[in-house]
Specification:
Rossmann fold; six-stranded parallel sheet; two-stranded antiparallel ribbon; 8 strands; 12% strand; binds adenosine-5'-triphosphate
Amino acid sequence: MIPKDHPRYLSLMIRERLVRGYESGIVCTQGLIAHGRGEAFDYLIGEKTTKAAMYATRAAVATLLVAKYPIISVNGNTAALVPDEIVLLSENINAIIEVNLFHRTEERVNKIIAHLKAYGATKILGKRVYKSIPGIEHERGKVDEEGIYRADTVLVPLEDGDRCEALVRMGKTVIAIDLNPLSRTSKTATITVVDNVVRAVPNMIKLSEELRYMNKRELKEIIDAFDNELNLQNVIKHDN
Ligand code: ATP
């Protein structure tokens, strides 16, 4: 039990959620390591949403709202950290959830689907896998034909650089959530939200409630004004 007045309470609670996810077979060992890297970057930005992150989040939500066929790709860490928020966001932006794992096993896919269903998700893809991302070998290239393969826009919280690049090469608009502004994922995504998924997804929910009343032209203006490279430079300069 972590005392609420512990100065690192929130960070420790996030670790707890991942450990519980690991014990129940949702999170893989590599996911725990990836979280460690994320934590280090989170520390450097003060464990809060920066101005640059919020700017990217706004562009991301506008992009998802104008998308024709948006998909939210969910891995083990995301399912362990923000299951209810992912379900709510998918409803708000009318996107389908696809469980898509870098370290894929059928057992883990099934466990994550059951976990998300317990949080209210109805339609979840990822079980039937028919297509491969061109250029990405074996298990980690597998995607659902009716999901990521068909999507025009994919939200990928915590994606690997290779796959992100390959999705962009397929002509998709890729929105990444990644605490490391220097990662290949951050550099190759169309829009990168450099923030912790535990803050970014709730921010996306709030913004989706605001932006959904805008018309397409207004949403397009938000999207066109956004420059990912410039925004990443602002993150690195720590221009809060
Ligand atoms: P790349 O392949 O993109 O160059 P990588 O190999 O470092 O990057 P992975 O190990 O595939 O990336 O994934 C870990 C990434 O996820 C790290 O960049 C880390 O910062 C990020 N990350 C981990 N936990 C979180 C979190 N809770 N919220 C946001 N980002 C996170």
